[in-house]
Amino acid sequence: MPLPGKWGTHPGPVAAPPSGATAPESRVSAHGGTCQPPPRPLDCTPVLKKTVLTLVLLVVLCAAGFYLAGGWLLGAATRAALPRLVDLAQTTGLRVARCEFATASVHPLVALHWKNWDIAVARPVTPRTNQAAAETLGLRLAQVRLTITGWAPLTADLAVDGGTLETPFYPAAPADLPFAGDEFGVAIERIDSGFLHLPGLALATDPRPLLAALAKDLEQLARGGRTARELQLGARLHFQLKGEPLTVRLETERRAGATWLRFNAADIAELSRRSNQPLTAAEQQLLCAHPQRALLLLRIKEYAERLALRLSRLDRAYGEDFTRHVVWSYWLARTFGDEFAREVTDAHEAGATANTPAEHRQDYANNDIGRRYAVAKKSENQVLQLLKTDPMIVRVAR
User: Fold this and answer.
1) What pTM value is reported for the model?
2) Which residue stretches of the chain are H helix?
3) Cα separation, 252 vs 255, whole angstroms
4) What is the pLDDT of residues 220-241, one digit of tens each?
């Protein structure tokens, strides 16, 4: 009995067409109608490929356009804003005579770069100089990079790299002090490899609060040697010591919830080896921990040694050793205060292994007298007179 089929009835299986024969496009049903084959599924693969390639090409072109046009727009916007930024810097006490950069670029989608900065910072005018003599310090920066790290609120990391200061200069000393002259200082011939990294800056439409806070923190770091702000700073300072070049690396370290400024210990050890009187290990540690005071400490020590030697040659009432210690501790206390002056002189005595116990007692006593003169607000002329008449001064080790 014939079985019912989808397309009608047939008496039995249909024989396969001979090899090489083409299957019929359609066939006639038992009712005389034409049977159509089932519809084939639509193949969208070529269309999808073309669509994806088109989208990728559009993204690449947009990114390239954004990169090229973004850099131009960033440069134009920055140059337009520079006069205002310079004015803001002036309010913090920094006198900027020139500020330029070569190129700007946008690195999609979160980094802005400015390269090859040329900045001239005016030297402060002191009573020892006049306006005509004041020069500028030429600062060059290889790159300034601002990387967006958050969008709500807007935050970024700021990185300044490749800082170079080519203009030689003597670090300033208080103008009313006798050792303020350049002959007692160590000239910094060049500063290079400078960098400053500031993470997590909160950006806003008004940059003044941020700039003021940064200026305050950096000034605190430069003057006090520490700041609560997290940052990384470093540079190489180049000197001439005894006619030979010397490099000291400036570094920062993060400890006890603060950022501390310090000198590299190996470089200070090399400075000690080249000094007329090598520094004790405790003195070296002190210089490393107080880089903002290091050059002024060397000035005071050099001044006390020269003055004591000159006075001892002119008048036998001045012993070279006790005069040096009294004058040294007096100026340390006047400049940095009694407590830090004691720390400095004690660091010297702690490592002076060549001294006898009697010589140590003499030095400790005379250092204490010099500090007491400073606390009593004696002038240097009064101190020089007391050196000849004060019975408390230990003139001979005993």
Assistant:
1) 0.77
2) 45-91, 208-224, 265-274, 281-289, 291-314, 320-336, 338-351, 357-375, 380-389
3) 10
4) 999 899 999 999 999 999 988 7
